[in-house]
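Dear colleagues,

As part of the handover before I leave the project, I'm documenting each prediction I ran so the next person doesn't have to rerun anything. This entry is a single chain, and its sequence is reproduced below.
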Amino acid sequence: MTEQTATVEQKVGRCMLHNWAEERAVAALDSEENRFQIQRQGHQGILTLDRDTKMETVTTHRTDFIPPKGPGVRERGVRSELLEKHIALMIREKIQAERNSPPPESDFCSTTQRDFCVEGFVPLTPELTQAHDYKSEAAVTFWSENRHQIQGVTAVQTLEAPFRKSAKFSKPISERLDEPELPPDN
């Protein structure tokens, strides 16, 4: 008996906190030679001594909570049931007719064909209000119109080319004094 309690105490010391009761119950059944089999299949004969019995298929939940049964008597009349079925059939047919409606005919024409190749369309070129030379004039852009509000850009030397490179920030002051001052931009 003392040998058995010593082995039980050793096993209890090595088990998890809440598993000590299980460890004590199976301490006598454990042996080192069948340790692998016990870990794989568990201890035989703890839950039942008759190993040939089959498990029950009914759970305690199913036995305690049985679904309710109907009263066994007709609760609604035949006419109301037929009316409900007829209304459900009408609604079902209406929804199926909406879902299964034939697709509209496809119009295979591009945007150009639909919007610009219309009969009676005459393209007009607007008359020039001023003569422009695109080769020599600078383009009018958002940045050229708002060059005064841009931060971190060197001073504008000429209005025709406001974004050209400028070396004014690195030129010594003695060299810059000899240059003529340009009128400020308005």
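Residues 116 and 123 are 9 Å apart (CA to CA). Residues 8-13 have pLDDT under 50 and may be disordered.

All the best with the project,
I.
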